[in-house]
Design a protein that fits this description.
The complex is a heterodimer of chains A (563) and B (325). Chain A has 15 helices and 22 strands. With 563 residues, chain A is an alpha/beta fold. In chain A, β6 (155-161) and β7 form a beta hairpin. The longest helix of chain A is centred in the first third of the chain and has 21 residues, at 5-25. Chain B is 79% helix and 0% strand. The longest helix of chain B is centred in the middle third of the chain and has 39 residues, at 182-220. Chain B is globular. Chain B starts with a helix and ends with a helix. The chains are: A alpha/beta (563), B mainly alpha (325). Chains A and B meet through α1, β10, α6 and β19 of A and α2, α3, α5, α7 and α8 of B.
């Protein structure tokens, strides 16, 4: 019996060696953030599972800007205003002591920075940082990668006084949503340093790895690529210190693996796209509570107005009549929560203060009405599928992201409902983001679009002006983000008026009028808001879902851990 | 022998280049790497999109881009991904994780398969044999994600509860903020390896144990075994020294050939256990139409499959002198 264990020994040795090699070899992974010797203490650590790893850390660039990144860096980068769970835009009282419009025409805003506010290297947060963000974001330098120039391009000057603690921002034309500006401030002096003296290089490339600096309650310490990033309290923060020792954001938890990871204490909270079985499994775990909410993302049905059928308003109305949106909600998001409802406004979502339900004509299903409309448009509906003498059978493709269960379910229900009104729907999906090239082709030209009806989501905004890009025509042949090709000068004039309206109540009224106009012309039909799902260990006190862009970590500095 | 190896290597290189051409042109013609940027909300301006196009070299003709890529790869540089990060870095990091899982799974299933194969063959048609046959077919037909869910519930959550310590992990290849000595690291890695290794190894174990059983049965009925017995050699000596040694030859080549398949099959296992390794590299690469990522995956996976096929051929000759003649 002396011979056979030899190969066993070799195998055991190989296995052992691979472990040792891995254990030693991974040493160099963590070197990119500030070294931090504080070993992890239990009791003070919260582990959050995120489903997306940031691919850069300058949220203000188009290359890195993402929801997931924004939800981490809001704990690190200072911002003038924050968005609360009830969609209110409130001044960040840590950073500013006041922010006021001191003149309406020309519009001038005066920000007063807290005298103690400083970056973690000791440099005070000042007007220089406001000015830097403006210069980089106003689109004046084509070499700068900017996520959005909206608002910044309207600023004429940013001036500091009072040792840089008072910032005076003057606009060239009125901008109603000035509160959306100066979020995610960066330290001008350090960004230049990261670019070896060139601020543009520092801005575009300097934050490939998490920054060592912080101007918020937490700082980033340990980024393990593809695995996790850790936030620890920023000792230099002038406001109240967080009571947790460590906030670990993990990127290596599959959605389906969340229940087991929660149960096995590997994570403490997560924010997955809810699926029915996931929600049910999580609900059974002891010591874990979960919140279901309705967030900013809403699904909608878009019509390509270049399609000869869909160009006819009667056909779009017929589709509106033939759809039973209530049933769509019941059979999709309604399974998660009784509070799910049909969305009747494209600009203000149900949880926003200015929400008004529009689209009265389309509240209940009316198949006869649909057939009548088609009849008026000259369709012959005696066969199973209606036929137009010139445009042929009323058969339309419906495209959405394959693999997205919620959308595929919705699509099937739409197909079934429209079939009853003589409208044939064929399914034309592509995997993942690929389908967007059908709606927004590479060339940016209307002629290259390849879809009839589209089903996807827009992310709603606390700042309604952003919706302008979705419905204003960028030119007859261009798409921009207006995937339907809709154009209505009357509505565009209303948008212009709303952009410049500094009284937010009057602006809200204008936006609601715009939505009513969209219901009149029906280039799109809103369906429902997508649910958010936030399971978390009950021992973390203070967790509150923020279904706006701010996300679940928005108040992490206030969390406390019950032992 | 050397001539054979050289011929095989040249042929393999040609295969790799041809497949890289096919994949390069498929990925670049089907997808728009800027789709993600375009679908952003708040929207990204056309200037930004144009700038990204230029930066990524998307304005150049595809064949030129391919040749640039090929020129770099020959020097061992897989280029940059869509975010401008070097592909090499992420590739080697992820390859290390996948190899860790695959090596452990193969080692484990090989040991188990040989042991069970020998046991089943020497006790053919016994209850033990039937039990292992049944369990083998069970593993063969069980989907990994389902097996994974079972393992997580019973071998991780309940087992850890039972011993009162978290020994077995359900997600990731290591704990975040692992800040211990080499031994602590190894324990943590092993704790993360257990479930994926079992899940990934189950299918190969099942197949290989059947294979080993049959090969063992063949050998045990051959004349030289009968002779050994007739000589009066002990049972264990006959089984292990005369029988197993010869019965291992076919399995060795099967394992070498299967290495590529296990490596590819790890994609699902990695997904189930949240390992950010080669599998998610491919999936993300395909999703974003990141051609450099997809090709890096293909080249490495292809090279590994080819290398192990070559090893299989060579091993056969080494282990069985009759082949060489």
């Amino acid at each position: 019996m002396t011979t056979h264990p030899r190969w066993l020994r070799v195998l055991a040795l190989l296995l052992g060696l691979s472990l040792v090699a891995a254990a030693c070899g991974d040493d160099d992974d963590g070197g990119d953030a500030a070294e931090d010797d504080a070993s992890s203490q239990d009791g003070g650590t919260v582990v959050f599972a995120s489903d997306q790893e940031p691919d850069g850390w300058n949220i203000n660039t188009s290359a890195s800007s993402s929801l997931a990144l924004g939800q981490i860096v809001e704990l690190v980068y200072p911002a003038a205003f924050r968005i609360t769970p009830d969609f209110e835009v409130v001044m960040d009282e840590d950073l500013l002591t006041s922010a006021e419009m001191v003149s309406e025409d020309p519009q001038v805003i005066e920000y007063v920075i807290d005298p103690d506010a400083s970056w973690s290297d000791g440099t005070p947060i000042s007007a220089d940082d406001f000015e830097f963000l403006w210069t980089m974001s106003n689109g004046s330098n084509p070499d700068v990668d900017t996520a959005s120039t909206v608002g910044y391009e309207l600023i004429e000057s940013v001036e500091g006084s009072d040792d840089g603690k008072t910032v005076t921002v003057a606009f060239s034309s009125p901008y109603a949503e000035w509160r959306s500006l100066f979020a995610d401030l960066l330290p001008a002096h350090l960004i230049s340093e990261l670019g070896d003296g060139d601020p543009v290089v520092g801005w575009n490339e300097g934050l490939a790895d998490p920054p060592e600096f912080s101007g918020g309650p937490f700082r980033l310490v340990d980024h393990q690529p593809e695995q996790s990033v850790t936030l620890v309290p920023n000792e230099e923060f002038w406001g109240e210190q967080p009571s947790t020792d460590e906030l670990v954001v993990r990127f290596d938890v599959d959605n389906a693996g969340i229940p087991a990871a929660l149960e096995n204490d590997e994570i403490d909270m997560a924010y997955p796209q809810p699926q029915l079985d996931l929600v049910e499994q999580v609900e059974e775990i002891e010591g874990v509570e979960s919140v279901i909410n309705f967030g900013l993302e809403f699904e909608h049905l878009d019509f390509n107005l270049a399609n000869s059928h869909l160009a006819k308003p009667e056909v779009r109305e017929a589709i509106g009549f033939a759809l039973d949106r209530e049933a769509i909600v019941d059979r999709t998001v309604g399974q998660f929560s009784d509070e799910a409802s049909v969305l009747n406004n494209r600009i203000f979502l149900t949880n926003q203060p200015n929400h008004e339900a529009h689209g009265d004509d389309y509240q209940s299903r009316d198949v006869d009405g649909a057939e009548q409309r088609l009849d008026e448009a000259g369709y012959d509906c005696s066969a199973e599928v209606c036929t137009h003498p010139e445009d042929g059978e009323l058969s339309l493709r419906l495209s959405t992201t394959a693999g997205n269960q919620l959308r595929e379910d919705t699509q099937l229900i739409i197909q079934e409902q429209l079939a009853e009104a003589g409208i044939e729907v064929t399914i034309d999906n592509l995997e993942g983001n690929a389908v967007f090239s059908k709606f927004f082709p590479d060339s940016g030209l209307r002629a290259d679009q390849d879809y009839d009806m589209a089903l996807f989501a827009w992310t709603g905004e606390p700042f309604p002006s952003a919706t302008g890009e979705l419905y204003i025509s960028p030119g007859p042949d261009m798409i921009g983000l207006n995937s339907t090709g809709y154009s209505n000068p009357e509505m565009e004039a209303l948008y212009d008026q709303a952009f410049a309206e500094t009284d937010s109540e009057v602006a809200a009224e204008l936006y609601n009028q715009i939505d009513e106009m969209l219901w009149e012309d029906l280039p799109t039909i809103p369906l429902y808001q997508k649910p958010t799902f936030l399971p978390h260990r009950s021992s973390i006190e203070g967790v509150q879902d923020n279904a706006t862009t701010a996300g679940p970590l928005w108040n992490a500095e206030e969390w406390t851990l019950a032992s | 022998m050397l001539g054979f190896v050289v011929r095989r290597l040249v042929a393999s290189a040609i295969v790799l280049v041809v497949s890289s051409v096919l994949i390069y042109f498929t990925v670049t013609s089907f997808g728009d790497p800027l789709a993600d940027l375009r679908a952003r909300n708040p929207p990204v301006s056309q200037e930004v999109i144009d700038a990204r196009r230029a930066e990524l070299g998307l304005d150049e003709p595809v064949h030129e881009r391919y040749l640039t890529w090929l020129g770099d790869v020959v020097t061992g540089d897989f280029g940059e991904d869509l975010d401008g990060q070097p592909v090499n870095e992420v590739l080697w990091r992820r390859l290390g994780r996948t190899l860790r899982m695959v090596t452990a799974a193969i080692a484990l299933s090989l040991v188990a398969a040989v042991a069970v194969g020998v046991l089943s063959a020497t006790r053919q048609y016994s209850k033990t044999d039937y039990f292992f046959t049944f369990s083998g077919f069970l593993f063969l037909s069980m989907p990994v994600f389902w097996l994974g869910a079972l393992l997580k519930e019973f071998l991780a959550v309940r087992f850890n509860d039972l011993v009162g310590r978290r020994i077995v992990f359900t997600t990731g290849s290591e704990s975040p903020r692992l800040d211990t000595d080499v031994w602590g690291r190894m324990a943590d890695y092993a704790g993360h390896l257990i479930l994926p290794t079992l899940a990934l190894g189950a299918v190969s174990y099942a197949a290989w144990s059947r294979y080993q059983r049959n090969s063992m049965l063949d050998v045990m009925e051959s004349d030289y075994i009968k002779l050994a017995r007739a000589k009066g050699a002990s049972r264990s000596r006959v089984v292990f020294r005369h029988g197993l040694r010869n019965a291992l030859i076919p399995l060795t080549t099967v394992v070498a050939i299967d290495f590529g398949a296990v490596f590819g099959g790890a994609i699902i296992t990695e997904q189930v256990f949240g390992w950010s390794a080669m599998g998610s590299l491919l999936i993300d690469g395909l999703r974003e139409y990141d051609v450099n990522i997809v090709l890096a995956w293909m080249m490495v996976t292809g090279a590994i499959a080819i290398a192990f096929n070559l090893v299989a051929d060579l091993l056969y000759g080494v282990l069985d002198p009759r082949i060489r003649q």
